[in-house]
Automatic annotation (TrEMBL):
Residues 34-100 form the NodB homology domain. Residues 374-392 have a biased composition (Pro residues). It holds the Pfam family Polysacc_deac_1. This is Polysaccharide deacetylase family protein. It comes from Thermus composti. Coiled coil: none annotated. The lineage of its organism: Bacteria, Thermotogati, Deinococcota, Deinococci, Thermales.
Amino acid sequence: MEVALGILLLYGLSDLLFRFLGLGAYAHGKRREAKVALTFDDGPSERTEALLALLRRHGVKATFFLTGEKAKGRPDLVEALRREGHQVEDHGAYHQALWLFLPWVEWRHMRETPSRYYRPPHGLHTPFTRLFARLLGKRIALWDVEGKDWLDLPPEALAERLLFYLKPGSIVLLHDGPERTLRLLEILLPKILALGYEPVTLDDLKPIPLTFRLALLRGLQGLEERYNQRHRVRRAGLGPFDLFRIEKKPFPGPALPGLPPGVPALELHLESARMMDLSTFEVARYLRKSLHRVAETVAQDPEVRLVYGYSYLAQGGRYLGFSTQPLPFWPRLVGSLASAWFLWLYRGEFPKRAHFWAGMAYLTREELLRRYPPSTPASPPQAPGEPGTPPP
């Protein structure tokens, strides 16, 4: 019994560390450039030719993780993928993940097709997966954005969700097979190209292995997504370096001149993942541009009286025109600890002692619109999914 429990614990720990967190895997690239890698699992399929035509029409290169048994059945499609400049990598011999719990089966599954990258079916990891990959000279490729094209959801909603969570350096998980994927891409590709993203192959993206800190970030993505859903958080602009998410709520205080607690406001949430590889100068430049996007939302909503945020960066907000306000002790302590945690998580740094304490930075509606006039006429805020709803 003890041996069986020990084996189960080892398998569970391996899956937690190496699939859920992705420790040591290649799951995204640097966040400095607006390059993204679209990756397609499970092919080739009866829709590969249509998928190739769609990518060709938009001038997009992608990476295909092929299943060995399917690739053997359609060598013409494998050759077509290579001929058109797409990257071809290994998804294993077959897609029956249950049998991979047997180490001798997993070894045969992984060694059948030579490749530089290997993506396990469903991302599944056993205690042997990383060892076998090293022996075979393969890198484990995962992802940081799921297309969710295996779910029975409208392609329009799936495309909007991808636009919401796509980041510079993202590796996007999609599938070669579902008809839904084609419709999703017909919607998605023109939009991401218009926003300034450049879809490239995995090699051109130059993905990086996840350190413990980056793996922890990957594991916490689901919590952020659930928060966005629950609180109806939107992005102020969907561009690669639009750095604010916004949450409409009653202003919680402290009381400000002419602005008592309870007035409608927008709380600003920094898109820290988009900032993590940028220099201080670049962050300041993109913050200014992003505030014009916030102003577009405020201009469209006459109820909003101010925008605000809590952070150890509050004092620095004065260079962007924000006013600052000290916080009571407990909110100040909680905000300071949260800021220190996120600074380490996203940047690998700790706040300097002189700047540890968090404060509140705010801009009134009038001051925001004066300093950062919307560059385009006010339009309804861009939100994923149906109007007024969070991402699916």
